[in-house]
Design a protein that fits this description.
Low-confidence stretches: none
Helix content: 25-40%
Largest sheet: 7 strands, mixed
Number of helices: 8
Strand content: 25-35%
CATH superfamily: Vaccinia Virus protein VP39
Number of domains: 1
Radius of gyration: 16 Å
Length: 221
């Protein structure tokens, strides 16, 4: 079953990365950003984007809050967070072209996020945040090149599992995390999700991916 899922996921990734060898501009949530090659497209199906999920995760943010956007890619979630006035840190893997993020911020008169390179929480070791957001590489499979790293999170979903295991250590006392998972992937990670108090905040339907959930994770009291 897992092998069949991995084959399906790799086929989906090939579909979504077709023609992604050049930088292109997309508009999501009213912001125009540059999607560099090898970076996850936040609007892979034209007008059908993740915008509603991104914005639902930012409700209630204020200037006093510090937000961490993991795997920021083109920086769209980080920039939407910056638009609330919050202080924002954005991270992604070494080799990902994060240069366009500052230009996108300045284009919209936003304070550019602090941008750091590294795997998951490594660049922010010892730091805590009021809100952590993550649109992870939730498809199963070992990436064969830089373009697939944005979509494939390991043969057993190692990236998502590591995030779920480590995110609580990087939240403030009243902090929370938001992660995006399609329905099939949510079922696969139920045991890992169970260590958190989980709220299904928002959902939408996207072509190819089906129903996609925005899950709010809070420490169990």
């Amino acid at each position: 079953m897992k092998r069949l899922r991995a084959m399906r996921d790799r086929a989906l990734v090939r579909l979504m990365t077709t023609g992604a060898s050049r930088a292109r501009e997309v508009v999501v949530g009213g912001l125009r950003v540059v999607v560099a090659p090898g970076v996850c497209n936040p609007a892979p199906f034209g007008n059908a984007s993740f915008a509603r999920l991104y914005q639902a995760a930012l409700v209630g943010l204020e200037a006093r809050h510090h937000v961490l956007d993991l795997g920021t890619g083109c920086g769209i979630w980080a920039l939407l967070a910056a638009r609330t006035g919050a202080r924002v840190t954005a991270t992604d893997l070494p080799g990902v072209d994060l240069g366009p993020i500052e230009a996108s911020a300045l284009r919209h008169d936003l304070t550019p996020p602090r941008v750091l390179e590294g795997h998951l929480f490594e660049p922010v070791d010892g730091e805590r945040f009021d809100r952590v957001v993550f649109n992870p590489p939730f498809h199963l499979g070992v990436p064969r090149d830089a373009g697939e790293r944005a979509y494939l999170g390991g043969a057993d979903g190692e990236v998502v599992r590591a995030f779920l295991a480590g995110v609580a250590e990087h939240l403030t006392e009243d902090g929370s995390a938001y992660v995006i998972l399609p329905s099939i992937e949510r079922e696969a990670y139920e045991r890992d999700l169970a260590v958190h108090a989980v709220e299904d905040v928002e959902r939408l339907w996207l072509p190819v991916l089906g129903r996609v959930h925005l899950l709010k994770l809070s420490p169990r009291r």
